[in-house]
Amino acid sequence: MNESTDLGDASFPEPVLRLRKGHIPDPAEQENHASDQSSEQGPLLVEPTTSSQNEKHSNKDDGNSPTQEDEGFMARLPLLQAHHAMERMEEFVFKVWEGRWRVIPFDVLPDWLKDNDYLLHGHRPPMPSFRACFKSIFRIHTETGNIWTHLLGCVFFLCLGIFYMFRPNMTFVAPLQEKVVVGVFFLGAILCLSFSWLFHTVYCHSEGVSRVFSKLDYSGIALLIMGSFVPWLYYSFYCNPQPYFIYLIVICVLGIAAIIVSQWDRFATPQYRGFRAGVFLALGLSGVIPTLHFVITEGLLKAATMGQIGWLALMACLYITGAALYAARIPERFFPGKCDIWFHSHQLFHVFVVAGAFVHFHGVSNLQEFRFTVGGGCSEDEML
Ligand SMILES: [Zn+2]
Prior knowledge:
The protein is mostly helical. It has 2 domains: 13-132, no CATH class; 143-376, Rhopdopsin 7-helix transmembrane proteins. The chain contains 16 helices and no strands. The chain has helices at 13-20, 27-34, 37-41, 52-61, 71-97, 130-135, 144-165, 175-202, 207-236, 241-261, 273-285, 288-298, 300-305, 309-328, 345-374, 380-383. Helix 7 (144-165) runs antiparallel to helix 8 (175-202). The longest helix has 30 residues, at 207-236. The site of zinc ion has 5 residues, from helix 8 and helix 15.
């Protein structure tokens, strides 16, 4: 269920944000805002049925009439109002901490939370509390699907990785070496998915936290791609270590370059959505070169059988589809406001990433089985 409610006029986040950053409001401006402060903050919070704090504040609200003759008081009024606003801010943070907040529409989000303007309702408000952010995992809003798709994916790959590491050594040609190269893939996948669900969880905390975690999230994608190359190159060039090491170095250099680019602050902005998709797509598609190398040296038949090219192609299709949906914001661009909670492009992209990583693991498992079947030797006789 979409929890979004009719929030009416909500010019709320801006004043709260300025206050949170320690800004003392301009007295004239403050006077204009003072009268409707309660309507500004009200829509975000679930009104408690009984609250001694509210009573406390409502008593203070009537305080501006009886002593207005006093000129000294008039002079202190702006300060008192600023203090009052701070008290309200503290109350708001306290309520957020307790989990009493409501989802808000896109147009009242602060700029740093505005990412996809096709998602009209159901956004979390800025919540400067990690406890509140983590509790929001269990609430319904625009990030719920993004968090759970990669949280469950992360648990799945963690279990799969542990299971793989405990497979009997007798099913490998070189157990330690093979478990290390496949382990690098699992590490990349688990880091990518962990950084991703953590980013989506704390994204609404504050501008600074969102920026740090978005950089981790993008770095995680590069780590997944780099980690995916390791076992695939190892098995594909098992009998030809020179290209294996060259391609390994190349993908590490490209992956590190992608991580460096993703540390750039503007990389995370909505305007660079297409560029982001392009960077990671290019990193993944750099795998076309070693694939062509394999096809040319081994022939198409061997590439399709022992090279597991079919699974690699399926993986590439999944990643490309996911990146295309992400960059073009499909389907929400065709149904603005209809995919706010479920089935928006970022969620679909997450599902395609998990599916792509699993298909890659399946292809690598087949490569490993083939290597075990033919034994560790590399002469033509042994391979037949
Ligand atoms: Zn994501």
